[in-house]
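Lab notebook, page 48
Experiment: co-folding of the full assembly
Goal: obtain a model of how the components sit together before planning crosslinking
Operator: M.T.
Materials (sequences as entered):
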Amino acid sequence: MSAVATRLRTHDRGARIRGALFVGLLLLSIAIGFLALGTLLIDVLSKGLNWTGATVDRVLLLESPSADPAIAGARPAILATIYLGILVLLFAVPIGVGTAIYLEEYANKDRWYNRLLEVNIQNLAAVPSIVYGILGLAFLVRGIGLGRVLLSGALILTLLVLPTVIIASREAIRAVPDSIRQAAYALGATRWQVVSRQVLPNAVPGMATGSILALSRGLGETAPLLLVGALTYVSFDPTLLGDFTALPIQIYQWIARPQEEFRIPLAAAGIIVLLMILLTLNAFAIWIRNRYQRTW
Amino acid sequence: MTETDATRAGEVTVEVPRHPSANDHESHEVVFDVDGLTVSYGASRALENVSLTIGAKQITAFIGPSGCGKSTFIRCFNRMNDLIPTARVEGSVLYRGEDLYAEDVDPVEVRKLVGMVFQKPNPFPKSIYDNVAFGPRVLGMKDKLDDRVEHALRQAALWDEVKDRLTASALSLSGGQQQRLCIARCLAVEPEVILMDEPASALDPIATSRIEDLMHELKRAYTILVVTHNMQQAARVADRTAFFSVTQGAEGQRTGILVEYDETNKIFTQPSDKRTEDYVTGRFG
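Observation: model returned without errors.
Model output:
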């Protein structure tokens, strides 16, 4: 081989192997995640869908819980989860977006109280959900005497997802380039006009996506709802100021039953319904993101 | 205040220049009178003790090396520096005799009179029409909006290129077109002065020359202040040119100063300051 030909061939085999190993490690990490998720899905689907098929699904959606697994359903729990979702969005989005706008567009970051706010919000996002539950019990249920009602649950889930909504909304607002603000200011727009006509419209997709993802996390929560008094047996449709349960709690309760029929297929079917609700929300979030995503 | 309003009202439809051929500074009415202007960001001084006057319906260029404070300077004329929390402005900028930095002056009102075009074209992610209409809409100038938009686009020499696709996204335009759209957007609110912060530095030579032609057109009706990195550009477009430079303090802190301000011709052919001469002949900066 000529000198040039030799020069053009691989010399450092070790480097190549290390590179290949690294790619292998990356693939392994992905595989672990996918395997776990896939196993869960297949397990749940096989157990929840197989057994007497359609009738169970219909019963599950339409009937109230019962001691007899053959006619037990999760209608109150499913409805309550949907109500909770709507209420949480109604409460958390305006408050979260408002906070984010203040922090990003109005707050002077050199002021100690604004920095304190920022640090606290970051920390709140990391507070365990059970702690929110305790807060809800002490403050909402007992403190102001709201009682163990759906509204208490919605309010405590709102507090739980609020930091995430705020952080996501801030990111979305920050992603609007400063040149847009400058252009608007230079035309004689007031700060309110700049925020309402330029910043917010451009931040809506990001804020919507973040809020929905935060919501879907909140709807899967069990612990805080248990503490504010979500019941495990509710046989009537939920109302704002009435007793309530929620889908994760209903599932938990069924799994804890001694009779096998409550676990398979009822709990499994409940999980499928919960997953469908959450996946629908996530799909909606992704759709919004793709539909309105902007490149600058 | 009333005097300002009267001046403005009289200029709403001005197309005919008030001083068609005058080029010497003395014959132009003074629009800005800057006195002892010092701008600091926190503890560091960006610009120190600048004093000059700017005449109406002229193009005044600010040139100088990076960090000499020329962009900081131009942003004093529409109080854009107010948007930077740490910025502090001392001295005075008189606009037709009124100090823009007086306690009770509203920066939002200042920006209605003094428009600005930025270095990088920054159209809103909206339609071409909505870009131009944004200013009139927020300022409540909603009568005959279509005419306003058309007029502004014509003034910016963009109308013929976009008249059939006014609803298309502004981001679909080329860089040069986007910059002319930004100029149209600025003109639509009928300012008296236009600030241009390196308006052509992100553009190719052909787009640049279109912007320069446009500046020549616009100076018949508007007072134009332009920051430029490009000395040829200053020589081509400006009636008067101010050369800024950087001084190094004892502790290495860099501060911008005004070195020389004169007729463009004089700055480039027979500057009176050695530093100006070094800069324009390419020996420095």
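Interpretation: Chain A touches chain B at residues 108-110, 177, 179-190, 193, 197-198, 202, 294, 296 (CB under 8 Å).
Next step: discuss with group before ordering constructs.
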